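Re: that backbone. Tokens:
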């Protein structure tokens, strides 16, 4: 809006400047040739009347001249004649100069020509001014205004406001473009509505699955309570225990399947998982490893350096569980864990202290071609054939470690090795 007004103001100022130039330059002397033969004839007729004794005033009125005689050659009237570009001649009726005679009959012609020229130029200026304003108006209405509307419309779309219609002018150069933009708006709005419906359906599905999980959990809880009660009374026999364990195992499988369904519905939101690193003691990490009793033998080869690191306790526990669980699943060997401190480059500085956690198994490792792909989302190596999983374990390991200010690396060294880095405080 301000830009448009500036254009109008600049145009008006330019036209006013042109008008001022015309005003002060137009109006000079218009060159006009006089017929001297005619003036000589008129002069001799004046001589005749003057010698005949006709009064000066009658001669002036009769011949349309100004006659200055009897020592009045320096009178103000003579100066006025010269100033008015009159034809002034010596008045010599008897062969002797007795005064001056002047004809100022062309001054009116000059003035008339000047007025006509000025009028013509002013009319031309007015036409140009009106044409310029009309051009600016048409340019603004048919070009600039649609551009502004498209810009404002794009801003509303960027804000997520898809209910603002865009005026479509079919006879406008931007008509087809605005129509395409409006179609895009409708498609985006429909897409947004479909996305909202899908999100709602997903939440409802998760809620239903969570409700379904309660049933097997309640069964497991009741079975455990019965087993505990019979154990205390000494009435439990081997067959009864086996039956109860089979019930628990079946319900556990049901829960696993339901959890897989929940996991499938939330795959797209993995990157939005919140990671909040805080200053924590490294003793927690050693405790995480010691609590891993379901993954075979985990050997801690040395004590972790006692210090503070930046980590999210929950996410770090998930990282360790993923790495050790993968090694147990695919290698099935003892798992060796070693801790040390290293200095490495980071985004903030060249030398930053990290605690390095080296987790290695004794399996065959991974092919060199697959190593760069292991931490990609949904990638599953050749060793994963016939085993359950989604190809997200190592992807989440790297994602969580980087969000904690550290990192993760994988390589082969007598087995598959995963190195985790936690930034020291």
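Recovered sequence:
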């Amino acid at each position: 809006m301000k830009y448009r007004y500036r254009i109008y103001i600049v145009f008006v100022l330019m036209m006013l400047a042109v008008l001022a130039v015309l005003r002060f330059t137009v109006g000079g002397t218009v060159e006009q040739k006089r017929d001297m033969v005619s003036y000589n004839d008129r002069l001799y007729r004046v001589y005749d009347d003057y010698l005949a004794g006709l009064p000066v005033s009658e001669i002036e009125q009769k011949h349309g001249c100004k006659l200055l005689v009897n020592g009045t050659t320096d009178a103000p009237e003579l100066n006025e004649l010269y100033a008015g570009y009159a034809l002034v001649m010596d008045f010599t009726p008897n062969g002797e100069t007795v005064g001056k005679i002047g004809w100022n009959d062309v001054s009116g012609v000059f003035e008339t020509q000047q007025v006509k020229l000025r009028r013509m130029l002013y009319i031309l200026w007015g036409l140009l001014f009106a044409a310029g304003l009309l051009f600016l108006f048409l340019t603004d209405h048919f070009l600039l205004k649609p551009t502004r509307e498209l810009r404002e419309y794009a801003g509303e779309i960027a804000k997520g406001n898809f209910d603002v219609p865009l005026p479509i002018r079919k006879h406008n150069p931007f008509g087809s473009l605005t129509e395409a933009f409006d179609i895009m708006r409708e498609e985006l709005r429909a897409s947004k509505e479909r996305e909202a419906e899908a999100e709602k359906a997903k939440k409802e599905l998760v809620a239903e699955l969570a409700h379904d999980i309660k049933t097997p959990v309640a069964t497991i809880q009741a079975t455990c309570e019965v087993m505990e009660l019979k154990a205390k009374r000494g009435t439990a026999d081997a067959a009864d225990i086996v039956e109860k364990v089979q019930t628990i195992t079946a319900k556990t499988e049901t829960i696993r399947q339901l959890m897989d369904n929940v996991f499938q519905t939330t795959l797209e939101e993995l990157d939005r998982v919140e990671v909040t690193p805080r200053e924590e003691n490294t003793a927690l990490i050693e405790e995480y490893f010691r609590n891993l009793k379901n993954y075979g033998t985990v050997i801690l080869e040395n004590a972790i350096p006692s210090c503070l690191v930046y980590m999210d306790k929950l996410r770090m526990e998930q990282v360790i569980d993923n790495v050790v669980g993968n090694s147990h699943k695919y290698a099935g060997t003892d798992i060796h864990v070693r801790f040390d401190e290293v200095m490495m480059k980071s985004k903030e500085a060249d030398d930053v202290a990290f605690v390095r956690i080296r987790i290695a198994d004794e399996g065959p490792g991974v092919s060199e071609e697959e190593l760069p792909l292991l931490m990609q989302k949904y990638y599953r190596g050749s060793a994963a054939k016939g085993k359950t999983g989604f190809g997200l374990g190592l992807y989440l390991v790297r994602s969580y470690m980087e969000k904690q200010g550290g990192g993760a690396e994988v390589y082969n060294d007598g087995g598959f090795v995963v190195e985790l880095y936690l930034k020291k405080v």
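Residues 80 and 195 are 94 Å apart (CA to CA). The mean pLDDT is 81.
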